[in-house]
Write a structure and sequence with these properties.
Layout lengths: L5 H18 L38 E10 L13 E2 L5 E22 L4 E11 L3 E7 L8 E9 L2 E11 L1
Parallel strand pairs: 2-7
Antiparallel strand pairs: 1-3, 3-4, 3-5, 3-6, 6-7
């Protein structure tokens, strides 16, 4: 199970809003009144001096993706019923079923809009010693623009699983 703090949730929401604004922008010179406002990125600061032992590096992924499912909601057991058609205000849940052992392995999910623009991208950390389901939920308070989308999954930055296509009407 992946737990997030309120700060992480707020940062994810701000990131999604800015990605939605950029990712869903039409090629025309018109403005999208449904796009979320852009968020400003925090200024980079110098890292604090390191004390004690260095943090352990993420292990190499000894995990494989057995299934990728896109749906609207996740059940208590993290299962997601496949959906191919979404309404603009629906949440989009990308469910990633994995097998194997993993410690601090990054599972990424990316939504791409029909013209190739990124509509959303999130990462989750996987810590497991067996079969596990990781769900990544994408929300757009202003609504998803109508069109075709593609959900792609990565494990430690490498493509994994079968990309899924769906449509917003």
């Amino acid at each position: 199970m992946i737990k997030t703090t309120p700060l992480q949730t707020a940062l994810i929401a701000a990131l999604l809003g800015s990605v939605a604004l950029v990712g869903c922008k039409k090629k025309e010179e018109s403005t999208d009144n449904n796009a979320a406002p852009a968020a400003t990125a925090p200024a980079e600061t110098a890292p604090a001096p390191m004390t004690g032992a260095p943090a352990p590096m993420a292990e190499a992924a000894a995990v494989s993706v057995s299934a990728v499912t896109v749906g609207k909601t996740a059940a208590a057991d993290k299962s997601v019923a496949t959906a191919a058609l979404f309404a603009p205000k629906d949440d989009i849940v990308v469910s990633v079923k994995t097998d194997g052992a993993a410690n601090n392995v990054t599972v990424g999910a990316k939504l791409t809009y029909q013209d190739g623009q990124v509509a959303g991208e999130q990462n989750a950390t996987l810590n497991t010693s067996g079969a596990e389901t990781t769900n990544v939920t994408f929300k757009n308070a202003k609504g998803w623009p109508a069109g075709k989308y593609r959900a792609e999954v990565t494990v430690d930055g490498k493509a994994a699983g079968t990309p899924q296509e769906f449509e917003v009407k």
